[in-house]
Amino acid sequence: MAEFTPPRSFASNNLLDSNRSCSPSGQLRKECSSAEVSEKAAIALISRLATTLTLNSGYRMPAIGYGTYSNSDSPSVMGEAVYKAVQVGYRHFDCAEAYKNEAAIGMGLERSFRDGLVERSELFITSKVWQTNHDPEHVVAACRNTLSNLKLTHVDLYLIHWPLAWEYTNVDCEPLVPKDNDGNVIMSTSGCSLQDTWRAMEKLVDEGLVKSIGVSNFSSTQLADLVSYARIKPAVNQIECHPYLPQNNCRKFCAMNEISVVSYAPLGRPGNLHEGDPKMMEDETIARIATEKEISPAQVLLQWQIEKGLAAIPKSTSQVHMEENLLIQNVLDTNDINSLDALTTRHRFCNKKWCYGCLVFDD
Ligand SMILES: NC(=O)c1ccc[n+]([C@@H]2O[C@H](COP(=O)([O-])OP(=O)(O)OC[C@H]3O[C@@H](n4cnc5c(N)ncnc54)[C@H](OP(=O)(O)O)[C@@H]3O)[C@@H](O)[C@H]2O)c1
User: How do beta strands 311-312 and 155-160 pair?
Assistant: First the structure.
């Protein structure tokens, strides 16, 4: 499959020419001139200026965001980490009701507003509706529940987390995975289609609860179907994407339809590996480029994302890693990118075979 690069006008980065920004230019100027801004925060700010994507809804999204899913850190640790991430310079946060930590993250965000670190209008906050809440009335209740937990009046982006519906449990998605006595996932019997769910998502925009809507883990085929009936086009498809799973087909389809791609697990989930998972950050080619360019393997992987016109949402609770991941310097050359594109290892780190009861992906 030939490599694909989206048109520059779509994955463009000119922050200052839009009046629908999540980070108004005036505010950025204020931040730039603040005497209290540390050198690291200033560099992070410059990084952010250079890497902001314009969604098809007209809103702007910082290309490097902060992932909030963790299977090892408690909700309170993630809430603290979000506060720290705001301090470090992150302005884009990826949340989900299924991560079961939105209330703690809401407290972290509230504290960052209270302490004057940032204003709500400067942040781009995403959340997602879980499979048990796909029925239209549950979509609305789930979104309101997320807003209440996050202590926000709107989110900037709301996604359908996975393209399949399970039996409703309750508004808190408890249990997260409804199972029968044999341990199989109980699929929804309500007759709710993805089209029904999308209509409810569109209504959330109409009601001002969310600014943009999108999907996650959708294939090109599922997107093609969605685009055929969508009144409001999906702004984003959030998928696993990195040099071991470059998603060339899906990225091409998304670019042709002006759907931005947000890459999850961009570092290959080093803290959550299962049997048979490769250690992508230790890949020889990635390590060689990192050494040659005097950057870290994580920075190599994140710069690959920027070069492809993608957004990425690495998770970290370590301040050193948070800062490292935000400082994307433009040091990879064409040979480096070609070397990364030539990698032949193919791996999906987040395949969810253990819980979905049916295979979502073909590989
Ligand atoms: N839509 C979906 O279905 C879906 C699925 C999975 C994930 N996501 C989203 O994507 C986000 C990111 O994915 P992920 O958390 O699975 O994987 P990831 O970001 O690829 O990897 C996170 C791991 O990398 C480590 N790390 C971070 N920066 C590092 C650095 N500079 N050097 C070395 N190690 C580093 C972190 O450890 P430390 O904390 O110790 O730094 C953590 O263990 C999630 O948090 C979530 O928001 C969405």
Answer: unpaired
- Residue 324 near ligand 1, beta carbon < 6 Å: yes
Identify the CA nearest to 214 among candidates 192, 203, 198.
198
Residue in this structure with the two tokens 């309750």, named with its chain if needed: 170
- Determine whether the shortest distance from the Cβ of 318 to ligand 1 is under 6 A: yes
Q: Identify which of 84, 219, 316 to mutate to test ligand 1's pocket (most ligand atoms within 8 A of the CB).
A: 316
Q: What is the rounded distance in angstroms from the CA atom of residue 265 to the CA atom of residue 314?
A: 7
CATH of 25-341, one of 3.40.470.10, 3.40.50.300, 3.40.50.970, 3.20.20.100: 3.20.20.100
Q: Is the CB of 197 under 6 A from ligand 1?
A: no
In angstroms, the CA 339 to CA 358 distance is 35
Does 350 sit in the ligand 1 pocket, CB within 6 Å? yes
Q: What is the pTM of this model?
A: 0.91
Spacing, Cα 267 to ligand 1 middle (Å): 6
Q: List, by residue number, the catalytic residues.
A: 99
Report the nearest-CA residue for atom 35 of ligand 1: 321
The protein residue whose alpha carbon is closest to atom 37 in ligand 1 is: 316
pLDDT 10s digit of each residue in the chain, 363 long? 444 444 333 333 333 233 344 443 444 445 545 545 566 666 666 655 558 999 999 999 999 999 999 999 999 999 999 999 999 999 999 999 999 999 999 999 999 999 999 999 999 999 999 999 999 999 999 999 999 999 999 999 999 999 999 999 999 999 999 999 988 889 999 999 999 999 999 999 999 999 999 999 999 999 999 999 999 999 999 999 999 999 999 999 999 999 999 999 999 999 989 888 999 999 999 999 999 999 999 999 999 999 999 999 999 999 999 999 999 888 999 999 999 999 999 999 997 665 556 677 776
3-class SS at 60?
strand
